[in-house]
Write a structure and sequence with these properties.
The structure is a single chain. With 332 residues, this protein is mainly α. The chain contains ten helices and two strands. A two-stranded antiparallel ribbon has the order 1-2. Strand 1 and strand 2 form a beta hairpin. Helix 3 packs antiparallel against helix 4, helix 6 runs parallel beside helix 9 and helix 6 packs antiparallel against helix 10. The longest helix is centred in the middle third of the chain and has 42 residues. It is globular and about 65 Å long. It starts with 29 loop residues before the first helix and ends with a helix.
Length: 332
């Protein structure tokens, strides 16, 4: 009997190639989970933490960063235990955040939390798009300022770059499996350290040269340039910036679902939480503290795209290139 054209023989997977849920065996490890975490949390927002410390001051700024990091480790360790239900080691898997909410809290909270999650996710992706286009425009402005002087008229539209970034993400989103993005996340994690260290190094150079601005234990002071209402608004904005920078709730279940079954996923994820958040906190404190020490009360919202630095223009441009590469990976 002739085999029908276009019909290929089916490949049957053996039990050794399948996980306990019948899906292809997962191969993720603590290292890959840690790189995913770093890629998400160490975003371009780290360059805005100097501004946050400027609003809160040394005491509150550093205390809030450390406190939020400890809270993040605690809460994400709880989430690690909820990946499987009812037993954290032998129970059934919750593949997504939405599935976990429905399993533990029921249908009503499933809808409510889903709306919050997707609203946040939409906001984050818009933020990544705007940040990328801002960095591209910052590079063009740096070149323009370098050629024509710091007072030159150098304005460019962000729109073409936002559209281009969106098209690129549509193409990258066709990658079928999250675990295949491990290399992309590794590159993105490296670049996140890159621009954070560039921003910190440039800030340190200003401090060492003796050109750093005056700072305060309690942040920007109310006076002729800052009303009490604006001070309160800035303090809450700073707290929000730090809290958002510490969050990776939108992808935590996706990260857990790449981990191999042995040792238990919750044990691996708890190690990754500690490693990822520790690295995050060190970078946050380094970049935020040095940025504030360099610029004081006049710290820009982003020390690389806000033109706190003009020279060396190639190093500032390289920092923005790192932001662009990181945003491509972080979006995914």
């Amino acid at each position: 009997m002739e085999v029908e054209k276009g019909v290929s023989s089916k490949h049957y997977l053996t039990s050794d190639e399948l996980d306990d849920d019948g899906r292809i065996k997962r191969t993720g490890s603590v290292l890959t989970a840690t790189t995913h975490i770093i890629t998400v949390v160490v975003g371009a927002g780290v360059l805005a933490l100097a501004w946050a410390i400027a609003q809160l001051g040394w005491i509150a700024g550093i205390s809030v960063m450390i406190s939020f990091s400890c809270i993040s480790i605690y809460t994400y360790n709880l989430i690690a235990d909820s990946y499987r239900y009812p037993d954290p080691v032998y129970g059934n898997r919750n593949y997504t955040y939405m599935q976990a909410v429905k399993t533990y809290l029921g249908g009503t909270m499933h809808v409510f939390c889903g709306l919050i999650q997707y609203t946040k996710l939409a906001g984050l992706t818009m933020g990544y798009t705007i940040t990328t286009s801002t960095s591209i425009v910052a590079i063009k402005k740096l070149i323009c300022f370098h050629k024509n002087g710091h007072e030159a008229y150098c304005k460019f539209s962000n729109n073409p770059y936002m559209i281009g970034f969106g098209i690129l993400q549509i193409l990258l989103s066709q990658i079928p499996n999250f675990h295949k993005l491990a290399l992309l996340s590794t590159v993105a994690a490296i670049t996140s350290f890159g621009y954070a260290l560039i921003g910190s190094s440039l800030s340190l150079a200003i401090v060492v040269s003796g050109k750093g601005k005056a700072t305060s234990l309690y942040g920007t002071k109310v006076g002729p340039e800052l009303s009490a209402e604006d001070k309160i608004w800035r303090v809450f904005s700073a707290l929000g910036n730090i809290a958002l920078a510490c969050s990776y709730a939108t992808v935590v279940y996706d990260i857990m679902d790449i981990l191999k079954s042995c040792p238990a996923e919750n044990k691996q994820m708890k190690k990754a939480n500690v490693l990822g958040i520790t690295a995050m906190t060190m970078l946050f404190l380094l970049c935020g503290s040095l940025g504030y020490a360099a610029f004081g009360d006049h710290t820009p919202g982003n020390i690389l795209t806000g033109f706190g630095f003009y020279e060396p223009f190639w190093l500032v441009a390289l920092g923005n290139v790192c932001i662009i590469i990181h945003m491509v990976g972080a979006y995914q």
